[in-house]
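Q: Hi! First time doing this. I have a protein sequence and I read that you can turn it into a structure. Is that right? Here it is:
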Amino acid sequence: MKTDSSLDALKHHNPFASSSVGDPWDNVSPDVASIYHSEFEQICHLIRQKQGNPKECLACLVTGEAGSGKTHLITRILNHCKTDPGCSFAYIQPIENPLYPYNYLIREIINNLCKPVNGGSIYNHLDRLIGVLFSRLLPHSSKATAKVKKVVEVLNQDPLNVFNKDIYKYLIKQQIKKIGIRLLNEFDSQFDEEFLEVLFAYRIREKKQLAIKWLKNVFLDKNEREVLGKGLSSNLSEEGLEHKSKRILRSLGLLFQYTDHTMVLCFDRLENLEQERQVVTFGKCLEYFVDVAHSFLPLVFYRGETWEQQIRTSLNQHVVTRLETNHFDLQGCDETQSLAIIKSRLAVSLQNKSASEFGPLNIGELQERFSDRTALPREVINETNVILRNAIYGNKQLKSPDPDGLISNFYDEALSNIADSFDEINPEGEKLIRALELYICHNDRIGELHFEKLEYKKANLGGLSTGKWKQKELLIQVSSGDKNPFKVLFIVDNAEVYQTVSSAAKRGIKFLETDTTAKAVYIRDERCTFPPYPKWKTTHESIERFSQLGGWFFRLDKTSAVGWYALAELDHQIGSRELTCQNSSGQAVEINKDQLRKFIKTRLHNEKYPWFFQLDTYLQLERCEFKSKPKKSAKKASPNSESKSGKSDSLQKKSKTGKKETKTGSHDSLAQKLVTALASQGLTVDIAETIISHRFTRFKIKPVMSKGTTVRKIKNQSENLQVELGLESKPLIQPQAGYVSIDLPRKSFKPLQLKAIAKTRKAIQDDPKLTFPLGMSIDNEPFWADFSDPNMSSILVGGTSGSGKSVFLKSIVIGLAMRYKPNALQIVLVDPKRVSFTDLSDMPHLDEPIIMDNKQALSSLNNLVNKMEDRYKQFEQAKVADIVEYSLKHPKLPRYVIIIDEYADLMMDKNSNKALENAVLRIGQKGRAAGIHLVLSTQRPDSKTITPLIKANLQLKVALKVTTLSNSKIILDQGGAECLLGRGDMLVGGSISVQRLQGPMVGRKVRFV
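A: Yes, that's right. Below is the predicted 3D structure, encoded as structure tokens:
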């Protein structure tokens, strides 16, 4: 076979290495118009037919085997909808919860409507729909002037002009809501009243996000409902929310009809509907879209074999008839189409680097391979890959890839995709249950524990009913050696309605009270919130009782939730047979469920994927002693009670501080000013406690909720308090357990010295830990970090210029060097700015001179990665788990700490940034056990520099002062760092609860060990 220079390009970017398409919204594979052209044109005709007659009962079924190009066809339908302003598109994956399918559907549909109209647009498809609506309503206005006609003309040219500054102002002044609701009700009386109220609130910029939340059936508190519109119903039960979802869908369909709009619903990956009840529920939803909710056109994509053998017989015959009336079976490609696939992929990779349209591939061999046969697109891609590999490597036998490693790569890709779009993804208890069951039932890691899933019929639950709870629970039996087995009940509940949350907690209580040997875990996505105490009083008391009985109320933070959802997504992809790997001959082999189970057993338990560690720990702990009656708490004083002196009791309490305070009058005065400032905004609070910290005074306040004071209202007062109290920066306001903390800066303070903190703990010779002083807590107690702790083994530091970042890093270096000798600790300093560590160049602990350029940094990191792998080989030979066990029996190995002062500067080099990131990841994932630790800092924390994987593997997060709320969220997954004072003032979180510390200054004279 002839070879040319284009082989080098194909070797670095093989366009046939993968045949997976993925999410149609993100698909970048080249399109081949000739493939399934007839089927695509007929589907487009169906769309036009639905547009012409929205009430016509149409549906479509597309079947084809794995690799036949179903998802690629969906992408072409999506692209068609993008070019048709009268058409929208929704990509919907399996409805896993058969109890509340419409709640899932409305959230997915609104999510798709909120996709940008094009790649760089700030407007979405729902915005365009609103523009069309106003262009239809304005001509009926009582003030149908020349101005109205001009506005309508502009909207007809482009409906998105509805958000044009001038038109937006004009429409806000028009009293069109009343006449609009009347016209829509005259068009069809089935419009939901609340839907119309929210629809007209959507056009108001300040209410838009609340309107989207309401349309998605997301929890809205009383204040949010009042802002959105009058008369909106309060929170309903789950059944009530399901009924509301159907009303929204019906009204949305009527809105489409009024605006001459059609929405195409593409249902994919349906092979993952494993229960017959799920299939039946899916059939009922299809029937609703076909016969009730106008203007929706459902397109259903199934594998042909699955449709015939498992699905067809489970659906209502009426639905089957509707689907099979427009049934398209994807059979594959002929020779011409197969060659077209090859040409299109080569064109993308070669970019005209070859004179031939087939590049180095022999056209004769390709024609011979695909002549006189029909091949699925996946077969064409995989077989071409074999030919290309032979052209590049000849007869050389390549190593067959490790399926476990490939699944790990697929999982990493799912993690990245979900993290990037996390805010758009709805909390889904069903996916969390799926991930939980996969992990628990295929877990060999937790000591001698063995797990078995129990069916409710066979489990003795002491009269605990199942019913709908079966959909949100996992019941397992745990056995361990000679000990008696015990049951564990996992309840996954993301509901935001009082009745359901309370019922879930009470169900866990009954389970624990029935069986005193059992354990229970109540799991929630932390985005699904409910009001703090004293609202939902009974619910909070039930959760407290649940915890007293030994149950665990587990909130999944963003990092953990991404890990769980990614595991469910990976299971979906494998169930749909989307993932393949290639053997040593280059032939494609599908990844199967057995290989996924092996991945879970062998690879989902290392430090790269830490989101299940807390679960492991809980299952190994003994359940706390059973208490039949919790102790009664002392009667709480009335929040409005006052002392005899006329002042609030809270102002009479003694200030809490690390040193004795003799003058508290100034703090009482400041407290009174704070109370008065909040009162001027209509907020009534009591101050429960005052803590005088090194840089600020913390006031613990309790909102008087009976007078309408809420936590949200207090949090919104930071700018008002800054002005009212004459502060140089906004105060940090944070909800805490039972109170809200407000931190007001002190006018004067003395710098905190590192030496003073270091004296509080003596250095211990042969200390197996690696501790150093991080700073001083608000209680004026030293906070010590420990690199040997799994929660602190690597550190991410972020802070803007002037925040004290370089001083903080230097304090870590010196804090370590003061406690450990060079033979026990080696330090690597990376300083792209060339000025941060210059005075430390003679320190005896340095493993090599201070590194100041990218090549040196990459080389040093790679050397430490190799050293880490060598140590693991030593541990394997010595049959030990980590550096601590190894050092007990063998010569002590020194620990290594790598400190990078400005990671973003290193990542600017496109030639080395990927390799650098990989080295950082590997050390973050595996370094702790080998005694190699990483401190990574940046003054530009953004998602491109600090990727989700890097964040997940740097356990301790330190946020010094940053410029924006988004920067704070990048580091800590929450705001607050934008309100810090600078000069070492920090928030520390990550794998530990967030707390505020003051970092130390470094003296001029330092004595190293």
